[in-house]
Amino acid sequence: MKIKDIIEIAVIAFGIYQILKWVRGTRAWMLFKGIIVLFAVSAIAMVFEMNTIMWIFANTINVGIIALLIVFQPELRKALEQLGQKNFLSTLVAFDEQKDKKEKLAQEYIEEIVQACALMSKVKTGALIVLEKDVKLYEFEKTGLPVDAIVTRQILCNIFEHNTPLHDGAVIIRGNRIVAATCYLPLSENMTLSKELGTRHRAAVGISEVSDCVVVTVSEESGKMSVAMGGNLVRGVDLEYLKGKLLEIYADTPDATKFKIWKGRMKNVR
Length: 270
Ligand SMILES: Nc1ncnc2c1ncn2[C@@H]1O[C@H](COP(=O)(O)OP(=O)(O)OP(=O)(O)O)[C@@H](O)[C@H]1O
Hints:
Elements: H1 3-24, H2 28-47, H3 51-71, H4 73-83, H5 88-92, H6 97-100, H7 107-123, E1 127-131, H8 138-141, E2 145-150, H9 153-160, E3 170-174, E4 177-183, H10 199-210, E5 214-218, E6 225-229, E7 232-237, H11 239-252, H12 254-269
Parallel strand pairs: 1-3
Antiparallel strand pairs: 1-5, 2-4, 3-4, 5-6, 6-7
This protein binds adenosine-5'-triphosphate (ATP).
């Protein structure tokens, strides 16, 4: 083993790490998990010498790779564009402590979102609020106008106020900040959705199908609140349900886990 080989291994490991990090931040993450399952199935087929399954895999892999390149063309283009950017190195190695510090959806912000929905529901103001989780929604954020404001009930109500410039489309929330408003979301093509539902609710289901986000809607027609997650829509939820669902997002974040560990330690000390 020469120095050159060690450098080569380090470069490849770093490259794979960066690719995995990038995949986690895009909707390719779900697909990546699917591919891992397919590879697991092919490995099992190989161990048990299931020739037909192995033949199907061998003959579809080339087509599959081309299909992947076509489906993820926007993400690949974005990744290549980032490679060409000047600040690429600084994003690879997080020198800046702030950069590494992920913003988390703290309980107080959840309360703001819930209260905003309550107020809008009362006066039947239509709203579409997307809470981003692990899969980053940059491509949808770009379709709207940047806001970059701390989540407060007043700002949310103001954004969705009828006949104001920002009321149309969706708001995207990342951590404790509203990053964009008037965003255009993909409409779900789910045929089983109720025919009563219009495009606001279809858009909520649509974005939840392609990412792990949680979407809250307030109907302009009925004032009812709904929550979309993983392609499912729960209609007519109450404030308690809404708060519970949003708190689940908070519970998933590392900050909350740290808090739980800390609480556990405190219990042990006592
Ligand atoms: N693809 C989309 N992305 C983001 N927002 C959208 C999209 N399509 C529609 N909307 C929002 O939904 C509004 C139209 O809602 P529409 O009445 O069609 O839906 P709905 O599901 O019946 O909702 P409501 O119960 O509030 O009437 C638009 O004015 C716009 O703000």
